[in-house]
Amino acid sequence: MARDPRYDILFEPIRIGPVTAKNRFFQVPHCNGMGMSFPSAMIAMRRVKAEGGWAVVCTEETDIHPTGDMSPLVEGRLWDDRDIPVFARMNEGIHLHGALAGIELTHTGPRDACLYSREAPLSVAHVPVAAGDYPVQARAMDRTDIRNLRRWHREAALRAKRAGFDVVYIYCHAGSSLAGDFLSPRRNDRTDEYGGSLENRARLLRELLEDTHAAVGDTCAVALRYVVDDLVGADGKADMEESRQLVEMLAEVPDVWDVNVREWRRDSVPSRFGPEGSQEPFINFVKKLTTKPVVGVGRFTSPDTMVSQVKRGIIDFIGAARPSIADPFLPRKIEEGRIDDIRECIGCNMCVSSDFTMVPMRCTQNPTMGEEWRKGWHPEIIPPRKSEDRVLIVGAGPAGLECARSLGNRGYDVVLADGRDDLGGRVLAESKLPGLAAWRRVRDYRVQQIQRMPNVEIYLESKLSADDIRDYGFPKVVLATGATWRRDGIGRALSRKLPGLEEVAVFGPEDVFAGATIAGPVVVYDDDRYYLGGVLAECLRLKGLDVTLVTPASDVSNWSHATLEQGWAEERLHEIGVGIIEKHTLVAARKGSVTIAHGASGRERDLPCAALLLVTMRLPNDALFHDLQAEPEKLAEAGIKSVLRVGDCLAPSTIAAAVYGGHRCAREMDEPPAGDVPFKRELIALE
Ligand code: ADP
Ligand code: SF4
User: Fold this and answer.
1) Which tens digits make up the pLDDT trace of 182-229?
2) How far apart are CA 14 and CA 8, in angstroms?
3) Using 50, 70 and 90 to split pLDDT, how confident is the model at 132?
4) Which atom of ligand 1 is nearest to the CA of 652?
5) What secondary structure letter does DSSP report for 430?
6) Could you identify the atom of ligand 2 that is nearest to the CA of residue 362?
7) DSSP string of 281-307?
8) pLDDT digits 0-9 by tens, 231-270
9) Which ligand minimizes its atom distance to the CA of 363?
10) The ligand 2 atom nearest the CA atom of 352
11) Of all protein residues, whose CA lies closest to atom 8 belonging to ligand 1?
12) Ligand 2: does its nearest atom lie under 6 Å from the Cβ of 325?
């Protein structure tokens, strides 16, 4: 297909200092849980981005010295020459596809506790370190320390050049880099030439930029990642006027400005709390003050939004982390006029969670993310089928849909049957809840792909029994029948059915999805601790009900700290008047009230309750599986060779896990067994 000429502008080459980017697609630095711990996986992931058409592919933040050791976070590392080969190999792959390789150098100062190196962290002033509330302080840097920092930065830039990088970053973000800490009026209380006036506070940043130019600027572009609303004073408010002055002051110093906003939860705003392109009002002043190209982010997945931002002079480069994770081939799909094939990021931030959990990144939309090396999975290529067997997939939630899409791509003849009148399973239901509309993309992308496949047939309103499945007589059966929320209170905290449940109106999430009539006061008991309890509380409150959310966790929607949703969710619930009771377990119910107990003291109290909504845990819908397995001779008679369970039907989990499970099932169909350890591992070499 030909590219839509409206999008031609996105494919103009852009010069950055001594190098030229082949188009406007710029994969900005992003962490990935692989970094220095799983380098082969990280290299393969970045290479795939270059193959997918990104003109610039950058590393995650990369620490440059043991006094800026980010451990236990898994990021990049460039302390000495021994760290060069990993990046050299990555860059070789990136260059193979005509892309530029960028590295984000940083010294995170008092953010991290130097837990591996055991060095004393450095800072602009004496201050406790931020990460993990470790009882460790960073010490104020003197002139010698500043001289050393400049030397380490310069040496890291020289190593980056030797590793083949084309773009070398200076990172300026208060809380994640010393350059940003020095610039910050709230953090910098120095009385020397590095403190006081804006010029003094910006001195270190300017020096680092100039040092980098002098060291590597002949062949490498010098990039500045600048957080535009970081100049926060003692009152906690951003001084945008001073920020403007800073950009004016340094306007032509870097070769490219990469600008974004403060706080990761705002920068990578979850789709529940911010739309595509939401940074525009904050960053739009930068391009007016510099002739250098500007990169901006905003979970861009729509080429029209991209073109609009470029044409209106907001940005020159379409910066992207999440959209490049959900679809590493996004630029190529636009270039080839395959807009419908774009796998749009849903803004769930499951990818972000991998930074906190320090394991290879996973993505709800892209099941191959993090598996490029260890399983050899390519996001766009899947091996052809190895047999003529037809496959019956029961259940069209995320797992069934992804399994059907991938088997269809492999060339298998597939029937996908679902008992409901629409496809999508839990995702369809949940995407109707407040803030979750973008999550529907998990369904829409797959349905759209499947509908174009002549070898995949869809049957709706087809609730299948074991007899029905045997009647189909397909050699391969995949059960993707999902899971059902418990309605007895059992979960993490309770291991026995809650006493007194018969006396109160009890509901589960599916009842809310189905629009059940619920009368308040409602108690939402959230022992699941991710997003759903909070979202359902919001949903019921917006219907005008009196709602109290009780959770045994220390925070409401506790696990969503990992997806940057927690702070937003808590604010939202407070704003709309949902009562929140944390660290309490449900102990009993009776007509008109429930009893809850404090997790540590055991002190009990009663809450008025006409309706109890239990969000605790799910049980797999695996009755079909057991029915089929119970009569093996009938299976054989029907010509059924295998019955597999995928997604929540095997073990209830995240939507990302269901998509992954469906994909894996399709990849492994008719392939030799993968072995007890079903992927390649990276082993640390012994000295
Ligand atoms: P997952 O997240 O694992 O994909 P979901 O709960 O989202 O699971 O989807 C399961 C789907 O399976 C639902 O759409 C449901 O209607 C369907 N389903 C469950 N049991 C049957 C059955 N016996 N026959 C047909 N469809 C079924
Ligand atoms: Fe987007 Fe979610 Fe994938 Fe992250 S995990 S890239 S937010 S779809």
Assistant:
1) 999 999 999 999 999 999 999 999 999 999 999 999 999 999 999 999
2) 13
3) confident
4) 3
5) H
6) 5
7) HHHTTHHHH-SS-EEE-S----HHHHH
8) 987 788 899 999 999 999 999 999 999 999 999 999 999 9
9) 2
10) 4
11) 482
12) yes
